[in-house]
Specification:
Blueprint: H1 3-11, H2 32-46, H3 51-61, H4 63-66, H5 72-85, H6 91-102, H7 105-112, H8 117-134, E1 158-163, E2 169-177, E3 186-190, H9 201-205, E4 211-212, E5 220-221, E6 223-226, E7 239-243, E8 258-260, H10 263-277, H11 290-294
Parallel strand pairs: 6-8
Antiparallel strand pairs: 1-2, 1-7, 2-3, 3-6, 4-5
Length: about 300
């Protein structure tokens, strides 16, 4: 069994095509596939997995990319660079990266995708340097980072209130709290609560989600994953007043909700801006309730 066959047998037991897809720049790392694979490799590395185990895992879970004629070499480049940084570059992997580069397969795909001659020459220089780097001995392996485990600021079901510019109380509900994670995210749904007295549990249970349509916003529910890196500076603006039951679980890895780090801007000020907009512009016709986001549907069978 030659080097190439041995490598493929060891990791994927399949053949692959040594071509890659277009990128946003000429650098080896300037494409989504490389960035994703390299990032995932070191997420697993910092979690304590060994290099061989990580490599097998990545190959197993990225078969579609590996068999994509326009993208597979980005995968192998990222895996090779990550292994090299750990001082465990697989010899067969290196030989296959060498084949990709020295055969001109990568340049061929770039040409097919419309790159001009100037960019092709620059890409060739980058590839040659990358190959040369892989042949050097790294002084020491990349250190594993000790992840800091954080807890979210609020618990799932917490009901928060804060003062609005008009003097009334606004409100928000915590739909999810990710415990024992690196970032401690909360998923926060801003409500349309706008009243002179502090909201009660009943107010939160029956609240509508704030749908924003001011400025260029197009009927978007204001539900955000909150990263509390600056929370201590604005914590005094927020008060927990109630708790409700949230029956639905939200997965941050399969979420359409965006991420924010400023509660005062993306929660409180969004309410202020929306209410001000509604003085001259009708509110959105779209409606969503806190119950829809917190309670599972109860089906009745006859």
């Amino acid at each position: 069994m030659n080097g190439k066959a041995k490598f493929l047998h060891q990791y994927s037991k399949d053949n692959y095509d040594t071509r890659n897809m277009g990128a946003w720049g000429i650098a080896i790392s300037s494409n989504d596939t490389y960035a994703d694979i390299y990032g995932e490799f070191f997420d697993l590395y910092h979690d304590g997995l060994d290099v061989i185990e990580i490599s097998k895992k990545l190959v197993s879970s990225n078969q579609e990319t590996i068999h994509d004629a326009d993208d597979c070499s980005n995968f192998w480049f990222a895996l090779a660079k990550a292994q090299w940084e750990c001082k465990q570059l697989d010899k067969e992997l290196f030989e296959n990266v060498k084949i990709i580069i020295e055969s001109g397969a990568d340049i061929k795909v770039w040409r097919q995708l419309g790159a001009d001659e100037k960019d092709l020459k620059r890409r060739k220089i980058v590839l040659d340097k990358f190959l040369a780097d892989l042949q050097t001995e790294r002084p020491k392996a990349k250190s594993r980072k000790k992840k800091i485990i954080r807890q979210p600021i609020y618990k799932k079901g917490d009901c928060l209130t804060f003062k609005l510019e008009n003097g009334n109380y606004g409100g928000a509900v915590i739909l999810e709290a990710l415990n024992d994670t690196e970032y401690g995210h909360n998923l926060i749904a801003t409500t349309r609560i706008n009243q002179p007295n502090k909201p009660t549990k009943n107010d939160f249970d029956n609240a509508e989600v704030l749908i924003i349509n001011y400025a260029s916003w197009d009927d978007k529910p204001n539900v955000k994953w909150y990263l509390p890196i600056r929370h201590k500076h604005i914590a005094h603006l927020i008060e927990k007043v109630e708790e409700i039951e949230v029956q639905i679980s939200y997965d941050i890895n399969n979420s359409m909700f965006s991420f924010v780090a400023d509660f005062d801007i993306w929660i409180i000020q969004v309410v202020n801006q929306q209410l001000k907009s509604e003085e001259t512009k009708p509110r959105s016709m779209t409606k969503q309730t806190i119950k829809e986001l917190s309670k599972k549907n109860k089906w009745k069978f006859w």
